[in-house]
Amino acid sequence: MKKLLQSSLLVLIASIITKMGGLLREVTLAWAFKTGTVTDAFVISFALPTLLLSFISGGVGVTYISTYNNAQGDRKRFTNSLLTMFFFIALALAAVMAASPSAFIRMLASGFDAATEQTAASMLRYMAWAVIPILMCSLVSAHLQAHGKFFAATIYHVFNNLFTIIGIFIARSTSTMYVIGMMMVVGNCVSMGYLFYSSKGAELRYKPMFDFNSPQMRGFFVLLAPIVLSSVIGQVNQIVIQNVASSFDKGTISQLNYAHKVQGVFTAFIGTAVATSFYPQLTKSAGDNKEFKTNIGNALRLLLPLLLPIAVGMLILAEPVVRIIYERGQYSRENTVQTASLLRFYTLTMVTSSLSQIVTRAFYARSRTKLPAVVAMMSVAVNVACIFMFRGALGARGLALAAGVSGFVGLAVLYGFLTREVGAIGGVEWWKLLGSVGIMGAFVWVGARFMPLMTGSYARCLVMTGLLVGCAVLLYAVLLVAFRMEAATTGILFLKRWVNKKKRVSIGM
Q1: Please, what is the average pLDDT of the chain?
Q2: Rounded to whole angstroms, how far apart are CA atoms 225 and 485?
Q3: Among candidates 428, 467, 462, which has minimal Cα distance to 447?
Q4: Contact of 12 with 273, CB cutoff 8 Å
Q5: pTM value?
Q6: Contact of 394 with 342, CB cutoff 8 Å
Q7: 476-480: long-range contacts (C-beta < 8 A, 24 or more apart)?
Q8: What is the pLDDT of residues 267-305, one digit of tens each?
Q9: How far is 77 from 62, CA to CA, in rounded Å?
Q10: Helix extents (H) in 247-288
Q11: Best CA proximity match to 199, nearest among 158, 155, 156, 152
Q12: Would the pLDDT of 80 be above 70?
């Protein structure tokens, strides 16, 4: 548990930095262009390279770590051959996208008018070339994770965000939207260079190789195939969502994206941090059912006490949170209210997405990749059905709610199969956890009701919301300690050891 906590902390720090960079990118976009033609075009063109690559790269990380940790032959040759193959796949895909950007834009957003489609195509013509560094980064990042270098494997996204933000500033001042695409490519190339530099101490010296018949390569693609199928299904689902969203009022895609980015920050802070750090341990314990189940329980005990209070807080404080993050420049109060209403419906998605990362990787660790793919197909069917059920009454909010409902159904099915395979996963002190979250939630609700969070200046909103959140965090921490929850005692022990270590270092100096 201590090792998992330390690894999670490193990933958490890196995730905070990178996700805040991604959020700053969206804030800059909202400030520069609010919601409308440019922002909708950016969201689609920015998403397309990653969307198409996820057919391949969606499962590269978990599959590579599992294959690499269990490989018996020349692991360096296996890694270099895989990098060479991915380079040529990405090169071919980039060339096709750059040659026909409008066709790809229409595939994802058929409801765009001519102006929006043209703007998106001008960006995508350059952004398409980012698929090469993106795919290479996914594999090198997985290699670093396999060697326990979690910080370097996560922090590299910061370069892409930085250069994209610079591109937005240039585009706003020069009205040349394609500059954003060019700077995105530069940022991804810098990220790739950073990862290769960081991997020097992790047994990776890239040399082009073409050994595609090794046992490791065959095993890798046997494991990867169902995950790719699952990713394809998931992206078909995303294509449906974007096409439906493009049929709503102009700016709807941007508002959905802004709300999704906020919940995505917290998902990465917590769910991705825990899942990424515990997965290598899980692959090593896959053959020992008792240790395997213990690792899953440890991850859940670490995740849930952090995840649930944030979800409740986001549900109650959606409007002040969106105002603090986005409301400046061209972004109006009306935009804030609309985005906040979507954010509330994304709360369920944040919870299910974070938990699913752990449950799904538990199956991947045991090379059970087919079942998650089948469940993903079922979840997509549920999501599409919910979209058409909810869109009439809820509009764009129905898309956010549909994602949460389908995610919950998929999570419930996968967790049921997991407990059937390994037995009941205990250790979560539910009544203590729910009691603490409930008391904290009631405190936040009363505070939000009587404190002037949305009136007055931006500074007043920031101070008042920060004060309320700070008091809520303190109250929740006191409740965890009072109920003697394991998460609190483990955290206190970790901090004591860290303080004592710092004291010994200072005495030694």
Answers
A1: 80
A2: 41
A3: 467
A4: yes
A5: 0.66
A6: no
A7: 476/309, 476/436, 476/437, 476/440, 479/435, 479/436, 479/439, 479/440, 480/305, 480/436
A8: 777 777 777 777 777 877 877 788 888 888 888 887 888
A9: 19
A10: 252-267, 273-284
A11: 152
A12: yes
For the chain, how far is it from start to end, CA to CA, in angstroms?
Answer: 31
pLDDT digits (tens, 9 = 90+) for 429-444: 778 888 889 999 999 9
Q: CA 224, 225, 226, 232 torsion: positive or negative?
A: positive
Residue 414 has pLDDT above 70, yes or no: yes
Structure tokens at 70: 């269990």
Distance, CA of 384 to CA of 392 (rounded, Å): 13
- Residue 476 in tokens: 């929740």
pLDDT tens readout for residues 155-186: 888 898 899 899 888 988 887 878 888 898 99
Give the Cα separation of 494 and 251 in Å (integer).
46
181 Cβ contact list (under 8 Å, min separation 6): 45, 122, 123, 124, 125, 126, 127, 167
Instruction: Output the six-digit token pair for 119.
Output: 């703007």
Within 13 Å, how many C-alpha atoms sit on residue 323's CB side? 21
Q: Measuring CA to CA, which residue among 275, 369, 365, 371 is closest to residue 65?
A: 365
Rounded-to-integer distance, Cα 112 and Cα 124, Å: 15
Identity of the residue numbered 285: S
Please report, as a single letter, which amino acid is at residue 444: V
Q: How many CA atoms lie within 13 A of 318 on its CB side?
A: 22
For residues 264 and 21, the answer to whether their CB atoms sit within 8 Å is no
- For 122-133, the pLDDT digits (tens) are 888 888 898 899
Please report where in the chains the tokens 């040659």 appear, as a residue.
Answer: 99
